[in-house]
Amino acid sequence: MSSSTPSISDSARAIEATENAKLWERTLASKALFERAVLHMPMGVPSSFQAWDPYPVYLREGAGSTVTDVDGNKYVDFHNGFGAMIVGHAHPKVVEAIDRAARTGTHFAAPTASVVEFAEAICERFQAESVRFANSGTEATMTAIRIARAATGRDHIVKIEGSYHGHHDPVMFSVVPNSEMIGGRDAPSNMPMSLGIPPMMAEFTHVVPFNDLEMLSRLLENRGDEIACVILEPVMMNIGICEPHPGYLAGLKDLLHRHGALLIFDEVKSGATVAYGGATERYGVVPDLACWAKAICGGTPGAAFGGRADVMDIINSGAAQQGTFNGNPLVAAAGLATLTEILTRDAYDYLDALGTRLATGCADAMSAAGTPGHTVDLGAKGCISYRPTPLNNYRDFLETLPELYLASYPWALNRGIFITPGDEEQWTISVQHTEADIDGYIDQFSDFCTALGS
Ligand SMILES: Cc1ncc(COP(=O)(O)O)c(C=O)c1O
User: From the CB of 164, is ligand 1 less than 6 Å away?
Assistant: First the structure.
């Protein structure tokens, strides 16, 4: 981390302490549930990303743009299930679709008409020719990499420094390296980011910085005939938000194709949130393969990957892709209602307007109070980043001020605004949010900036 202005960091730490004490008083049922949960689940949560120190807020229900915790505290939800809930909670069309599907059989492990329609809807929206289904973003990226390796007959892959693509072994290198682990700019470290990963797997995963074609170009010059693909988020979303420079994605595709390698977009977060057609549409570059999850399935656990039919065709001739619950009828029904009835092109006009209102309001608040930060406005997604200028890559994220975020978290929750635990995340707005919801966020954030001082 860079050194920060002492006064604002001290002020942030003082706010964090005061606001945490208030939050802990208001969340005694969460605390009690945590004490039970931790007896049977590591960290007391079903996924490590849900953990928080000293305990997470446990939720009871969601309705529209709000969630309510087990203590009965109600919040406007900007966490939105790490971006999966762009439809908002218990959307009537999703509820109706799931209800209808549940009454006619929750699972067959045989194909249905709804999964065929879902495949058609995904292909139309994301400019893909052929898709297959999975149950999570992790499975989607895992299998897209398998397909790229099979289709090219090559074993090595390239990922971006400081990026997350799920928790399967080949991509668990350089996920959130701290300044001690990161290595030099010209030689980014690719230490495994979890115990339980054989260090020898690092041989197959190469790491390059985002928004930089030079290092990749050198790698391809040396080892191009071994490299199957680059997998990346076209807009990085696990460091707040970091946009691609103009020309970067097109240059990447061109470079890879010159070396016979494939381009995989991980659109698990960006797909169906940053535009109707995801980052592929927003930045105008169509990858060879892409992965979608989170927002495409209306809050049910589904995912898909696909792209060029000639690449996907390797599944017909030897590349394994299967799964008992792939294309499950509940998920297909919820996903189809989400993509065809809720997330229409018009919905994005609405989301864009709300997103711009939120990003502008927060940026104005920071500039009025002298808070060192900027906002990013990307459709249903956006973020506050505590660094004055936009990020170009992961190393810039290491220069943000986490203490400001840590103070903002209990501050927001104590004022009825639910945000993600972790400054690497961003907000997600749903189609059920209103201007009043947005203004509520801006009001508490303006007060936060004033309290921080400059
Ligand atoms: C960009 C990206 N890819 C993949 C994943 C993995 O998705 P899942 O958690 O559904 O396995 C995530 C999860 O946050 C993600 O943000």
Answer: yes
